[in-house]
Amino acid sequence: QVQLVESGGGLVQPGGSPRLSCTASGSIFRSIFRIHDINWYRQAPGKQRELVATITATNSTTYTDDIKGRFTISRDNAKNTVYLQMNSLKPEDTAVYFCNCLRMWGQGTQVTVSS
């Protein structure tokens, strides 16, 4: 089955440092996954989905200003997985986080930042 699966979300205290994972399944899709940009998006309640980080096939990275310096995107092609290391979380980081490759989306993982 071809899919992206996110994991690693949950309830986190302000200042916390969870790591989200996005793993690709399906042999053909895994090959595609390794050679394309992978994006992390988030959608907060009542807001539009926004792009937060991108990693290219050559490991170049870009970040939205809101999370620059706090989040790090990385990829491990041997594991067909892209990570989003989140540090110094703030309540305003609360959202459902999605990974995306071409037209494929994961189901999302909820991150709630609250004390």
Explained architecture:
This protein has 115 residues and is mainly beta. It has one helix spanning 27-34; strands at 3-7, 10-12, 19-25, 38-43, 50-55, 61-63, 71-76, 81-86, 95-101, 104-105, 109-113. The strands form 2 sheets. Strands 2, 4, 5, 6, 9, 10 and 11 form a 7-stranded mixed sheet that branches.
Task: Please outline the helices and strands.
Blueprint: E1 3-7, E2 10-12, E3 19-25, H1 27-34, E4 38-43, E5 50-55, E6 61-63, E7 71-76, E8 81-86, E9 95-101, E10 104-105, E11 109-113
Keyphrases for this structure?
115 residues; seven-stranded mixed β-sheet; 1 helix; globular
- Number of H- or I-type helical stretches: 1
Report the sheet-strand fraction.
Answer: over 45%
Say what oligomer this is: single chain
Low-confidence stretches: none
Kindly, what is the distance between the CA atoms of the first and last residues, rounded to a whole number of angstroms?
38 Å
Give the biggest sheet: 7 strands, mixed
Brief write-up:
The protein has one helix spanning 27-34; strands spanning 3-7, 10-12, 19-25, 38-43, 50-55, 61-63, 71-76, 81-86, 95-101, 104-105, 109-113. The chain is mainly beta. A hairpin with a 4-residue loop joins strand 7 (71-76) and strand 8.
